[in-house]
Amino acid sequence: MIDTTIFRQINEFHNFTDTELAALNDIVRENKYVEGDIIFNEGDESTELYILVKGEIELQIKIAPQLADSTVLVVKPCEIFGELSFVDPKPRAATARCVKKTIVALIQRDDFEKLVQTNPDIGLRFYRNIALLLSDKLRKMNGYLRETLIRALGIEI
User: Fold this and answer.
1) DSSP code for 60
2) Are the beta carbons of 35 and 18 closer than 8 angstroms?
3) What angle do CA 129, 135, 137 make, to 5 degrees?
4) Within 13 Å of residue 92, how many CA atoms lie on the same side as its CB?
5) Boundaries of domain holding 93
6) Which listed residue, of 24, 72, 116, 122, carries a Cα 20 to 30 Å from 154's Cα?
7) What pTM, to 2 d.p., does this model score?
8) Number of folded domains in the chain?
9) For helices 120-153 and 109-118, what crossing angle results, to 10°?
10) Alpha-carbon distance 53 to 5, whole Å?
């Protein structure tokens, strides 16, 4: 089990009650990894959400077969990752690689859905918070794409 105080430091759980966090903690599993370990690969089928408790993770994508994987996001402690495959049953969009010794908490979608059946408020708040997280990531990606296109086209602003 994970110390529930970590949930208080994670934006996606900030508005949960102590009772809800305790119920959530009952379905959380802890995994440990070392530098270089792969938590999941781009293209993997999965339904797990991860919370970085300790360490650092790089989310990487394959641009082309002849190129090394490109890091698109560095995950720091108290951040979640793997949320796309948690809410959408499609394959993983990136590879999660450990940069250093790491501890993650993971939540299986089936376990979470069972919890939500008994406490719908948890699901309502969580999925709203995930929508806000995804919206923020999409806005950042749009900015990154804009800057990349501006550079590629040689446009001066």
Assistant:
1) E
2) no
3) 105
4) 22
5) 4-153
6) 72
7) 0.87
8) 1
9) 140
10) 11
What is the DSSP secondary-structure string of 77-103?
A: TT-EE-HHHHHS-SPPSSEEEESSSEE
Residue 140 has pLDDT above 90, yes or no: no
Length of the chain: 157
Burial 83-117 (b: 16+ CB within 10 A, else e): bbbbeeeeebebbbbbeeebbbbbbbeebbeebee
Structure tokens at 10: 């994670």
Which residue intervals of the chain are DSSP H helices?
A: 18-25, 83-87, 109-118, 120-153
Strands 70-75 and 57-61, bridge-based pairing: antiparallel
86 touches 109 (CB < 8 A): yes
With tokens 């929508």, the residue in question is 131
61-97 pLDDT, tens digit per residue, is: 988 777 778 888 899 999 999 999 999 889 999 999 9
* Whole-number Å distance between alpha carbons of 6 and 117: 24
CATH of residue 135 = 2.60.120.10
